[in-house]
Amino acid sequence: MRLSSVAMDLSPLRASRDYRLFFAGFLGALFGTLMTAVAVSVQVYEMTGSPTQIGLTALARAAPMVAGLLVGGVLADRYDRRALMLWTRLPLAGVAAALAVNALLPEPRLWVVYAATGVTGLLAGLGGPALLAATPALVGTERLAAAGALTSASTQLAALAAPAVGGLLVAGPGLAACYAVDAAGYLVFSLAMLFVRPLPPAHAAPDRGVRQAFAAVGAGLRFVRRDRLLLGMMLVDAAAMVFTMPQALYPVLADRQFGSPGVTGLLYAAPALGALLGAATSGWTGRVRATGYVLVGAVLLWGGALVGFGLSPALPTALAFLALAGLGDFVSETLRGALLQHGTPDELRGRVSGLWMVQAIVSPALGNAAVGFLADLTDPRTAVVSGGAVCVVAAAAVAAAFPALRRATLAVEPADRQGAARR
User: Fold this and answer.
1) Residue 378: how many CA atoms within 13 Å on its side-chain side?
2) Cβ neighbours of 115 (radius 10 Å)
3) Are 298 and 331 in contact (CB under 8 A)?
4) Which of 172, 188, 312, 367 lies most in the core, judged by the most C-beta atoms within 10 Å?
């Protein structure tokens, strides 16, 4: 097998100037956002000492984000998607700056952390569907899998580097420095988007008021409910996320199981390392025929690896299992994103992307809250192992119940054959 057949496909970056600008801005904003996620977890644990409180910060972000995503999906099918991304990301620089000021106070306020987290969720939700829906216009449908792999790889690269840098900043200049970097990242994204061409939807839905907006959301829901492939992908993703989100426990595990709060950054970074290894050999993702089976297998790998992580008494073994989980998550995310964009008409892409992101946000938030609550009732290791085991069983059940998910493929392009696979 030639190395070029499995190496990461960089053609979206070579072919599109606008995508290069978008990608650079996205990576800058993402780096700061992930540093803030670590900083918030550390700050809340320092202030409260409660795993449940850490998990609740995820819910504080998720609840307003759900509302934002539902509205943002309708907006992305009516208005210029570039403008929506720009004007929902730029204010986030101010929110990050507010967190920095709060961290510098002699007695930081917990309510400020929760409030800033909620505002961040709302604004990110309003612009999120536009971000996803704009991708086909930037790269073309034939490069969606490659663009998805690049997005996932950049996410994991940031997830690998940001916690490590964030840990150094927390130990050195302090939490405020992490929040300041986040503010700078949103400014970078906004500057990049100024030079991207307008991205209106191909068939913009007319703006006819609130009642029609609710009807538009309903049309997206009906499309997802009728499409067995999209519904199956959402359910298998929920199975992976609701039961197995150990991030809320990383500060606790670092302190209690591995004996050093400084290990927190390593735990956050290990899954990203596994995902980057997958990204480096992701050229096959756009050509694999048994896409559905590979997707389900990747989710099973994620859940099984987290069981191994929870059972590992030694830090090196635990990190290895987290890296394996990251590999499974990368493959699953890449394939799901490509299948979603392939199977959704442009006039519905904003709303379907919004619904997709709703479950992608709510499921991890519920998972973080649930694992934190279970850890308080039992212990962190039991919470992680139980969640991984339930994920494996739930994912297998979804795969059995949705043949369209198992038969899904990116290798078959003709519409009639794709339609047959989705029924």
Assistant:
1) 12
2) 16
3) yes
4) 367
Residue that has been written with the tokens 């995902």 in this structure? 275
Count CA within 13 A, CB hemisphere, residue 66.
Answer: 13
The better pLDDT of the pair 344, 182 is held by: 182
For residue range 275-321, list pLDDT tens digits in order. 878 877 766 666 667 888 889 999 999 999 999 998 888 888 999 99
What is the spatial distance between Cα 280 and Cα 262, in angstroms, rounded to a whole number? Answer: 28
Can you tell me which residue has the tokens 């030694």? 314
Round to whole Å and give the CA distance between 380 and 248. 10
The string of pLDDT tens digits covering residues 344-356 is 777 777 777 777 7
- 24-36 per-position pLDDT tens digit: 888 888 888 888 8
Q: In Å, what is the CA distance from 340 to each residue of 62, 175, 263, 350?
A: 22, 37, 36, 12
Burial of residue 226 (CB within 10 Å: 0-12, 13-18, 19+) is exposed
Q: What is the pLDDT of residue 324?
A: 92
Q: What is the DSSP string of 61-77?
A: HHHHHHHHHHHHHHHHT
Distance CA 231, CA 399 (A): 11
Q: Convert 172-204 to b/e letters by CB count within 10 Å (16 or more is b).
A: eeebbbbbbbbbbbbbbbbebbeebeebebeee
133 phi-psi bin (left φ>0, alpha ψ -120 to 50, beta other): alpha
Q: CA-to-CA distance for 367 and 365, rounded, in angstroms?
A: 5
Stretch 49-63: mean pLDDT, rounded?
A: 78
Helix (H, G, I), strand (E, B) or coil at 231: helix
The closest of 279, 30, 326 to 149, measured between CA atoms, is 279
Burial class (CB in 10 A: 0-12, 13-18, 19+), 417: exposed
What is the identity of the amino acid at 215? A
**CA distance readout (Å), 151 to 9, 73, 269, 282:** 12, 20, 17, 12
